[in-house]
Write a structure and sequence with these properties.
The protein is built from 15 helices and 16 strands. By secondary structure, the protein is of the alpha/beta class. Helix 1 packs across helix 11 and helix 7 crosses helix 8. The longest helix is centred in the middle third of the chain and has 16 residues.
């Protein structure tokens, strides 16, 4: 039921020094990624992009409070500027939490934000616990969404599952936090011998970006955040905002029907936090053979164990199921009986049970403080229900910066929408988006 493994990027035949980091070929990584892409119907990394990619592994402390102690590998990729390099480097994260990040620079290059890669170098990071970085995979409990057990049994099942997972390596899971992921980013910046970097994050990647710019303001210049997570990290207010937005913008979905017309673009498939265009007429539905390496990569593409740890180590009250039940009753009291729907939030397993039942570590909210150094641009989507507009408004109030509200409901879709070129321009020149 449980498997534990650590994986580093494939070794290259050549390497180049970048500060203290050794970069090598990404050929094997790209080959395996494209095998997975063919299987699941997503876009491969094309040859011209692959030629400009390099991969590396950075060893970082498991516990930054014990810098001389155990280290873990962080897998990273670098996509060199395509045209006239401006010397800027953009760290990126696609969200999840739990999504691998090394392919994200290639996804950006194939998107409407491609102009960014003409001049800036794009860096993809598999944050600790994901992709090719230090990784422990825990099998999720087998549950039938259409026939869930009674509440006490469900809670017990989740508690046992979480305990079995954490027991594999308690020290690892305790240190699987947004704060440490941000410290890893700064360690990577230092290893690349860079005084400052820019940052582009989507969904949970915005949470990581907020922690990075708040804790290391001298290390970050321009920060672009699309579909902002709730930086308050209080489960009651977060869940309430999601339910309220769902009732307002997707009433059919709230009632168990299909999403409301206009809440998502046609011919777009949302894979967690990555928006991928799909051509229904030419999609290949055949099942190609797949290698062991590709199967391993697939198991790491959206790691549930990392997702659980990153959420449960952050959100206040998420492990207390008595409080979760009280929060449900509070939503119903305020929003009516419809307020009892299950929130579409990483915490939420049912309307009154969280994935954090029995989680053994005390949560610690991220450092979300206004800093004089970084230039911040926030992008929100007016009618989306995954990361409601209220979260972006709160983030701007707390952090400052500019806020652009797009008139759509498409979560994490900046790079595939009409404002994509403005997003690229902000990171290239610092021009606020309007």
């Amino acid at each position: 039921m449980l498997a534990a493994a650590a994986c580093a990027p494939e070794p290259g035949t050549t390497s180049t020094a970048d500060g203290t980091l050794q970069w090598g070929s990404c050929d094997e990584f790209v080959k395996t990624n494209n095998e997975v892409a063919a299987l699941i119907g997503t876009a491969p990394i094309d040859k011209s992009t692959a030629k400009r990619m390099s991969c590396a592994t950075l060893d970082v402390p498991l516990d930054y409070g014990k810098p001389e102690g155990k280290t873990i590998p962080i897998a990273v990729s670098k996509l060199e500027a395509k045209g006239n390099p401006n010397g800027r480097v953009v760290f990126t994260n696609p969200g999840g939490p739990g999504l691998e990040g090394r392919t994200f620079p290639a996804l950006i290059e194939s998107s409407d934000m491609a102009a960014l890669g003409e001049e800036s170098t794009l860096v993809g990071i598999d944050v600790r616990g994901t992709g090719g970085s230090a990784f422990i995979d825990c099998a999720a409990p087998e549950l039938d969404p259409s026939n869930m057990p009674e509440r006490a049994t469900l809670i017990s099942t989740i508690e046992k599952s979480n305990a079995k997972c954490v027991d594999q390596d308690p020290a690892f899971f305790e240190q699987l936090t947004t704060q440490n992921a941000a410290k890893d980013l700064d360690a990577l910046r230092s290893a690349m011998n860079l005084s400052k970097v820019d940052y582009f994050g989507v969904s949970w990647g915005t949470e990581l970006g907020v922690e990075f710019m708040s804790s290391f303001p001298g290390s970050v210049d321009r920060v672009l955040l699309d579909s902002v997570s709730d930086i308050r990290q209080q489960s009651e207010s977060s869940l309430f905002d999601v339910v309220e937005a769902t009732l307002k913008f997707a009433p059919n979905e709230a009632a168990g029907g299909t999403p409301q017309e206009g809440t998502a673009e046609e011919d777009v498939v949302v894979e967690d936090d990555v928006v991928i265009e799909e051509d229904s007429e030419t999609a290949d539905t055949s099942m190609p053979e797949i290698s062991d390496e590709a199967l391993e990569m697939m198991s790491r593409f959206s790691g549930q164990s990392a997702k659980t740890a990153l959420i449960c180590n952050a959100y206040a009250d998420a492990a207390d199921q008595t409080l979760q039940q009280q929060f449900l009753q509070n939503r119903i009291a305020t929003l009516g009986e419809q307020g009892g729907i299950r929130p579409q939030h990483p915490i939420s397993l049912t309307s009154d049970v969280s994935i954090c039942a029995g989680w053994p570590f005390a949560p610690a909210q991220i450092s979300a403080t206004k800093q004089a150094g970084p230039t911040l641009q926030i992008v929100a989507h007016a009618s989306e229900i995954v990361t409601p507009l209220a979260w972006a408004e709160h983030a701007q109030q707390q952090l400052g910066g500019d806020l652009l509200v797009l008139k759509d409901g498409n979560h994490g879709s900046l790079a595939s929408g009409p404002a994509a070129t403005q997003g690229a321009e902000f990171l290239l020149t610092g021009t606020p988006m309007k």
